[in-house]
């Protein structure tokens, strides 16, 4: 969300912007202007903006916004304010990230297991509170996707 905010700040003519990362130190920027188009010039500017202002450890591709559905990118759920605040934070320190996640998600406790630097995957152990529903687990995963650093993915092991 923070990266999307940065793009909209630098390119206010882009009405629709969404960034999605499946891990592997990669992300795709989906964008359209007010005419529901992405010009070659805008795509070039977005790649340059990403290289200079977004995470330097992530390789970015740029696609028209309508490719979201074709690429199978899920619709972003309505996010609680606490998740938005966490997603807008620039801090990516492991201890701070874990503390923030544990405060945001009362489904139990989440602990860092390991980081797979080759694939950009953060492995977490999740210790669930009794009575957690499948819907709450699904929301947890959707919210967690918004909070982890861009270019990363995560794997959860439930206990």
Can you offer a commentary on this structure?
This protein has 159 residues and is α/β, with parallel strands linked by helices. It contains six helices and six strands, in the order H-E-E-H-E-H-H-H-E-E-H-E. The protein has helices at residues 2-10, 40-53, 67-70, 81-87, 94-104, 134-147; strands at residues 14-23, 26-33, 59-64, 108-116, 121-128, 153-158. The strands form two sheets. The protein has a three-stranded mixed β-sheet, covered by helices on one side. Strands 4-5-6 form a three-stranded mixed β-sheet, covered by helices on one side. Strand 4 (108-116) and strand 5 form a beta hairpin. Helix 4 packs parallel to helix 6. The radius of gyration is 16 Å and the shape is elongated. The mean pLDDT is 88.
In short:
This protein has six helices and six strands. The chain has 159 residues and is α/β, with parallel strands linked by helices. The strands form two sheets. Strands 1-2-3 form a three-stranded mixed beta sheet, with helices on one face. Strands 4-5-6 form a three-stranded mixed beta sheet, covered by helices on one side.
Fraction of residues in helices? 25-40%
Beta-strand percentage range: 25-35%
Number of helices: 6
Q: Which descriptor suits the 3D outline?
A: elongated
Tell me the strand order in the biggest sheet: 1-2-3
- Content-based structural category: alpha/beta
**SSE string, helix = H, strand = E?**
HEEHEHHHEEHE
The major β-sheet equals: 3 strands, mixed
Number of strands: 6
| Termini Cα gap | 30 Å
**Poorly predicted spans:** none
Rg:
16 Å
Average pLDDT across residues?
88
